[in-house]
Amino acid sequence: MTIDSDSARFSRALKKAILLPAGVILLTALLLLALSLELFHMVTLTDHSAQVIETTGQCEKMMLDLETGVRGYLLGGDAEFRKPYDQSIGEIDHEFDKLKELVHDNPEQVIRADDLIKARNLWIEHAKGSLSQKEAGQMPSDEWRRIGMAMMDDVRAKFDRFTAVEKGLQSERRGEVRRLKQALGFAGVGLVLILVLTVGRAVQRQFSVLAGGYREALATIEQRHAALARSEADLEEQKEWFRVTLSSIGDGVIVTNLEGKVVFMNHEAERLTGWMSRDALMQPLTTVFRIVNEQTRVTVDDPVGKVLREKKVVGLANHTVLLSRLGAEWPIEDSAAPISNAQGQILGVVLVFHNATEMRQTQNAMRAYSHDLERKVAERTTSLQQAFSELEAFSYTVSHDLRSPLRAMRGFSEAVLEDYGDKLDEQGKDYLERITNAAGRLDRLIQDLLSFTRLSQQDASLVPVDLDRVVHGIIQDYPNFHSEGVEVKVEGTLPKVMGTEAIVTQIISNLLGNAVKFVPAGVAPRVRVWSENRGPNVRLWVEDNGIGIDPENFERIFQMFVQVNESQHYKGTGIGLAIVKKAAQALHGSVGLDSKLQKGSRFWVELARA
Amino acid sequence: MTIGSNAADNSVRVLVVEDDADDRELLLRQLRKSGMDSHVKFISNGREALDFLTTARPPSLASELIAIFLDLKLPALSGLELLRSLRQQEDLQNIPVIVMTSSNDPKDLAECQRLRVTNYVSKPVTFMSFSKAVADVFHLPRPDAAPSLGEN
After folding, report:
1. Is the ipTM of this complex over 0.95?
2. pLDDT (tens digit per residue) in B4-61
3. What DSSP line would sit under A556-598, residue for residue?
4. With an 8 Å Cβ cutoff, are A410 and B23 in contact?
5. What is A196-246 written as a DSSP string?
6. How far is B125 from chain A (nearest CA, A)?
7. Cross-chain Cβ contact A408/B73 below 8 Å
8. CB pair distance less than 8 Å for B125 and A411
9. CA nearest to A529, candidates A548, A514, A549
10. Which of B101, B75, B24 lies closest to A415 in space, CA to CA?
């Protein structure tokens, strides 16, 4: 049942409780009033009867006075004895009229009154006669007097009758009054009883309804109260849980309201700031949370103020130190965030901070370590670079110095051959040629080794290289590629690749060199060069019609100093393909070959397309 | 072993800047064959050579000199440096310079081209390499057609 229908019922009950008895009481009052009015009327009537009787008495008395006067005069003859008659005769009409007036409501009595008046008048007339006779000096006769007395008796009788009736009426009325009083009494009592009973019961019922409604309302209130108490208990529990949780957080937590005054501090915050929570309550944050720059000791911007202005999460600047109330200070890290409700309104700010001493130390240690590391790396790099350049210089010098005696050997062998050749036999010339050839081989070997070493050292930054230009250039520049009987054909236009001019040149000259070299005796070298797109790469093919390579040597052939042919027939250092492989790798590419013995070879090198 | 005659400074017609003794001997042999050996000056140091061509120059040099043989790998001053300085001399701008080289370094060769090297003699100096290179300069009959880099 809702509060509303409860209260409606309640007011209905209230109405019943009040109106009903009020109504009944009113009715009873009206009844009693009616009875009282009746009684009053009866009493008035009774009183009226009494008045009539009294007036009748007066009239009788007056008649008596008349009679006395007459008699007295008749007896005494003195005017003084006639006084009662004289006094009353004037008023007697008036009095009798009064009487008639009084009984005008009772027609029977009016008739009687008239009769009475007639009888009276008769006597009065007779009396007047009596008086006149007396006045005349005559004494009325006994007869006369007896007539007079009989008239008076009649009058008296009528009086009596009149009075009796009136008295009867009166006693009737008195009885009526008595009865009315009784009735009133009984009725009153009875009614009061009934009233009490019904009204009481009705009232009681209404009151019990009222009480019921009240009880229900109370019960509802009780329930609500209980529910409220439960939610309050829950709330308290939650608050307690939060309080405990917040207190257990290893970081300091301070919550402020919209004005930047502290409304909550957890235990860690108390510890770090040196303020007790109860002292800090409603203090401005800057009083409790005093932060300065580590070095300059200048007060740092209040993070809460910033959050309230910018309405977003704010972190602290570095090198901030918190000054405790107790004199200590700690480097801290913090962040402040706005607290918003579901509608997005900002309710306050929560500031979380922790002692960063350890972290600071760790950071410093790490910084020192990384500086150290950087320094070491720099040192190593320098020494490596030094080593490299030394090596380069060394290999350059080595090659130069190694080659120069070889030059001498070749040169002077040639010189002997040229100048003194005619003094030598075939054997002698042959020996000299061998010396020259051997020197030449060594020279080439040294050059190849130098190239190979250089490849390791180079830190090639790749640029686009025009394959087409390089290939055609090599073919043009090197006579062994365009001499008699040698055919080197380039199919299509070769694309650009990522590499360096030097390395690409090296690769191609080695591959082309091999292609024209390793042909069977008497066969004219036919070399075909073309390119193929393979995704982001370009694969350059060099195909020859040479002696071919046994598939089991495909891997070995790219190794250092490996020559899979008989080295006497074909001049080679065994480094050429190793250089090609190393060079391709330096350009982040790859090499490979396909071949069949006696059926020629197809070497390929794959590089990134530019 | 004979080093070869060193011409008097005011009759120098061929200057050879080369530090290696064997290379020098081989070149001299070729010059001898061409009959130029009496007017050859040998300098084995780059700086010395530069001085000879510039500050310490004999007065008749510009008119007498017909060729310079230049080795690229020299102590004190590299052949290229020397060549650069040489070409900055107004009266030596057009003098034939023949570079003696054992290297195929494209960087060096490109630079030589730029400095207007007349020709190359590949080392070790043989009759073939020499005669090809100097045919134009010394007005000798060419052994064959176009000048080239020489054998590799």
Report:
1. no
2. 446 677 778 888 998 888 888 888 888 888 887 788 889 988 888 888 888 877 777 7
3. GGGSTT---S-TTTS---S-HHHHHHHHHHHTT-EEEEEE-TT
4. no
5. IIIIHHHHHHHHHHHHHHHHHHHHHHHHHHHHHHHHHHHHHHHHHHHHHHH
6. 6
7. no
8. yes
9. A514
10. B24
